[in-house]
Amino acid sequence: MLLSQHTGPTRAGATWQVQIPVRISPDSWQTVPVTAEVASRNRSGVSLVGHGQGEGSLFFHGYTFGVDVTVQMSEAFNARGRLQDAEFKVDETTADGKGPPISYNWHFTAR
Question: Which of 33, 78, 84, 36 is nearest to 56 (CA)?
Answer without folding.
Answer: 33
